[in-house]
């Protein structure tokens, strides 16, 4: 698999064979952390330009099993980035009003505006994951959503949004360790929920749902990145690399002044 962990459209995905161990890709934690911190400095500068340019938008979607590291990723990757230019939206179980609309209704409004980075902590993909595994709607309702999602994302990309989709892939064993820490560490108790244990019992059904989601919604314009996420330091680096590479390519520019500033004096 290439270093970016990017899936290829049209290629079958075998999720149980995709690596969860980042340390297989990077032997040296200290070096990884140093690279991460250098890249974050670069991200801070690139984001400042993206915001000033005020033309393009970046949407970052994070999906993972419980304790997969979505919160930690957001905390680490965006530390120091101007909060004004980043908006995080967390998608919980839909409200009554949201359920009375199509599944993309609540998703469209918080997509990023010009100059913004929008981060989705969970996303429209829940509607082919939790919804499928827990039979919240019949298959005849969720199955057509793959195409609807691809069409929706194609519209966003066609309108100037860059989409980066990360699936943080942890092993079942690593989830156990993290749940155990939530039970034992008073600072983490608040994150523990019995519902998470119910979902853990359905691990294989979730993997099947993730696998099909990755396969059907990896497109040229918005592929999935499957990030080995058992080691947080590697997860952070792998995601940071993708974001910075993408921003370098976009190469945002400060707008040139609309007037000639050279003769202006401030008294
Ligand atoms: P953490 O990982 O830190 O616990 P979280 O994202 O799990 O955070 P919770 O409030 O614990 O936040 O859970 C949100 C719940 O909402 C998840 O169980 C998720 O599956 C569920 N959810 C999100 N979107 C949908 C949806 N469209 N339909 C049904 N359930 C959804
Ligand atoms: Mg949770």
Compressed to H and E, one letter per element, the order equals HEHEHHEHHHEHHHEH
Write out the strand line-up for the largest beta sheet, numbering strands in chain order. 2-3-1-4-5
The count of helical stretches stands at: 11
| Radius of gyration (Å) | 20 Å
| Major β-sheet annotation | 5 strands, parallel
Could you tell me the CATH topology label: Rossmann fold
By CATH's scheme, which homologous superfamily applies?
P-loop containing nucleotide triphosphate hydrolases
The computed structural class is alpha/beta
* Beta-strand residue fraction: 5-15%
Ligand inventory reads: adenosine-5'-triphosphate, magnesium ion
The CATH architecture can be given as: 3-Layer(aba) Sandwich
Low-confidence stretches: none
Please report the total strand number as a whole number: 5
Termini gap: 61 Å
Portion of residues within helices: 40-55%
**How many domain modules?**
1
What is the name of the CATH class?
A: Alpha Beta
Which shape, going by the Cα principal axes?
globular
Oligomeric state of the chains?
single chain
Average residue pLDDT: 97
Question: What does this molecule look like?
Answer:
- The protein is α/β, with parallel strands linked by helices and 267 residues long.
- The protein has a single domain, classed as 3-Layer(aba) Sandwich (Rossmann fold).
- Helices cover 44% and strands 12% of the residues.
- The chain is built from 11 helices and 5 strands.
- The protein has a 5-stranded parallel β-sheet, sandwiched between helices.
- Helix 1 packs parallel to helix 11.
- The longest helix is centred in the N-terminal third of the chain and has 25 residues.
- The relative contact order is 0.23.
- The protein binds adenosine-5'-triphosphate (ATP) and magnesium ion.
- The site of magnesium ion (MG) has 3 residues, from loops.
- The site of magnesium ion has 3 residues, from loops.
